[in-house]
Every structure is written in C-alpha cells, then in structure tokens.
Amino acid sequence: MPDVLSIVPFKGPIDAVVTPPGSKSITNRSLLIAALASGESVLRGALLAEDTHAMIDCVEALGARVERSADDLALTITGIGGELANAGPDFFARQSGTTARFMAAVLALGSQPFLLDADDAMRRRPMGDALSALDSLGVTISAKGEAGFLPVEICGPPTLVGSMPTVVIDGSTSSQFTSGLLIAAACMQDGLRIELRGDIVSRPYLDMTVSVMHAFGAKVLTPDDRTFVVSAGCYQSTNYEIEPDASAASYFFALAAICGGSVCVKGLHRDSLQGDVRFVDVLETMGSNVVFEKDAITVTGAPLHGVNVDFSQISDTAQTIAAVAVFADGPTTVTGIGFIRRKETDRIAAVVTELQRLGIHATEDSDGFTVNPGPTNDAIIETYDDHRMAMSMALIGYNRAGVTISDPNCVAKTFPNYFDQMDELRNGISL
C-alpha cells in the first residue's frame, strides 16, 4: 500500500453482507489461555494480524506450540500445562497492549527472570498498575528503563502462599491489567482474589476474559461487580470458536449510517461476548435502524441526530462515532473516555486535531470530545501510527471527496485488509 491513500467516495447507498475478521481481544485471550492449558486446543476464526502475531511469538516463547491450518482458519495450540520451566528468557510484545499487559502477569508464574519488552510505541504506554499489583504479590520487578514502563524484568512466582492472596488494582486505567491477572491467577498455587477500586472502565472486556477462562475449565466467581475470585487449577484444552471482531464491525455499521443503505454483519448478535456490539445502540439513538437476528446485526442508514453519550465501556469505537458525528444534524459529545489518551496515541487529541484539519469544528473536553457537523475541506489525515485513527477517519472519505489517509499500512495491527474490503464493498461484493 502507498504511504498515503486517497479515499474514493461511494457512489450510492450500500447493500452488503459482511463477516469481519476474528476478534483480536478474544483471539489473544484464547491464544494465551490455550498455551497455558494442558493438551492440544483448536481455535477457529482467530484473527491473524500484527497484534495476534505478537501474542503467538510470546506463547511460543513460553514453550507452547502453535500450528496454522493450510487455510489459516484454525490454530492448533499445544499447551505447557501452566509450567514455565522451558520458557524464555526474552519476550517481545511489539505494539500490542493486550500482549504486554497479559504477559507481564503470566511471566510472574515462573521462578526465573524474564525480560519483557516492546516497540517504542508500546514502551510509551503505562504498565505501572500491572507491575505494582505483581509487586504486591511478592513478584520481583526490575525496571530496565523508566519505572512503570517497558522494558522490565519479571521474576516470580508470587510469594504469598498458604491461603488465597488478595490483590487490589485500579479499574479506571485499563481493563487489560486486570485481565492479565485473571488469566494468570488460575495457574497460581493458591489462586487469587482480585478487588477493583475506582471507576471501572471497559468492564465488558473483563467479562469477556472470564468467559474465555470458563471455556477452558477455569473456576471464577464474581461475588460482586468489583471482586473476582479465581480458584487454582489452571486450564484444560478445548476447541474454541472466536467471534468476528465487534470493534472492526463498527466501521461497517458506521459506513451504512454515513453512506446510506444497509450493512449486515454476520457472526455477531445482541449477546455477543464483545461489549463493542453496543456501538449499534448509539447508531440507533442517532437515527439509524438496527435489527438483531440470532447470528447477525443489520444497520440501515437514516438521517442522523447529534447525541451526548458515555463511551467508557466501548472506548475502542469512540473514533468511529467521531466520524459518524460529522454527518449528524447537531453536535455530538462523547464522554467517559479520558483514559484513551494513553492508548496508541492520545486518541482524544488526535481525533480533534484531524477533524479540525478537515474543517470540522471539534473540541477536546475533560474526558472526551465534542464534534459539530459541517462541510469538510480537502486534507491529508495524520494517523499517529494508530490503526483506529486510519480506519475511522477514512469513513468520512467514503462519503465526501478530498480525504487522504497518511500511513494507511498501520491498519495491519488489527485489520490488515481493511481498505481492500472497503473497495470490495464499493464494487458490490459481500464479504
């Protein structure tokens, strides 16, 4: 793909059926859990992209074996039974937040030192809450750079033994820290009780983690919405089906809202594991028509209205709704997402800056942004090495001419053929 990509508007309404790639979030959870399990597991529908390749590299460094089917539709993982004796010593998470945060907790299961590192972009993202939680359990944490960031040396196992230990972690920074502890907890000698403090962001991702753990035989109790009690026992191998990615689906749903017509996404439904299916509820509030079926969701475009909405639980779709808001009949304010300033980039500042570059009146708020609809001018959109900036801002160009995306290749992180699939929809091909 070229260094810059001019987006060509669709000529009319869309009529398409789409199956997005597999969920990144579920793929990385199931990959790691299958690697920790005893025996051979098969994952069907897994995403193969930079973030999941990062996890594959790390689970192979743990000593697990990962084999791809000839058609890439299935991964077979031979697990290590919770034993890290043959693992390491070096683990590299690339740019993957889930890989880095999950692996930090899992590496604490070993009795030898492991070095966890990542690309520069991931080195800039905070790890302090996860590392502090491990330190409180008696794990030795040695910073190899700035404290609270990668690279870091981790040496376990937790030393609080004899009864189930308790760890307290801030729920307002990133659900990935808690998910990593949950995954590792099943392989700890005495299990683990996890208590959350503060506001809890991205709660659906914690529920997703517990669901995948249950599928592999772990026992997790939730006596209240701030407490998880994970029993010792590690994981059993299984065959596991991975849903299509709901965050990726948001771009197709938004396309129908922006360009008109209908897009049906197969493989998702009202009770999907991924909280980001709730994105369609926001589109419905804005005026789109949404139909839920047993194994599909269809969005049909209609005149859009501005809304005021809390995205704290579906933050990965905040940039998508920013693009949709350009086409509404009034301002849209998104709140509850201050924590996304610490993602691949400051996603609040980036959204506002690039919408302003297009001539849209957008402002940063204390924990979100406000977008006022209006005409756009020609502009080259900076993407900040953030896949979601590229995919969301391109949506504007599918309705209006003059949008050019810088560094379109950054979508390889989670959706390598995003622009190809959009072009196929333009040609009337359902995916």
UniProtKB/TrEMBL annotation:
UniProt xrefs under Pfam families: EPSP_synthase (PF00275)
Keywords: Amino-acid biosynthesis, Aromatic amino acid biosynthesis, Transferase
A Gene Ontology BP annotation from the UniProt entry: aromatic amino acid family biosynthetic process
Enolpyruvate transferase domain boundaries: 12-422
EC top class named in words: transferase
Single GO MF descriptor: 3-phosphoshikimate 1-carboxyvinyltransferase activity
EC number annotated for this UniProt entry: 2.5.1.19
Pathway where it operates: Metabolic intermediate biosynthesis; chorismate biosynthesis; chorismate from D-erythrose 4-phosphate and phosphoenolpyruvate: step 6/7
Catalysed reactions, semicolon-separated: 3-phosphoshikimate + phosphoenolpyruvate = 5-O-(1-carboxyvinyl)-3-phosphoshikimate + phosphate
NCBIfam families: aroA
PANTHER family: AROM/DEHYDROQUINATE SYNTHASE (PTHR21090), PENTAFUNCTIONAL AROM POLYPEPTIDE (PTHR21090:SF5)
Family of the protein in this entry: Belongs to the EPSP synthase family.
Name of the protein in question: 3-phosphoshikimate 1-carboxyvinyltransferase
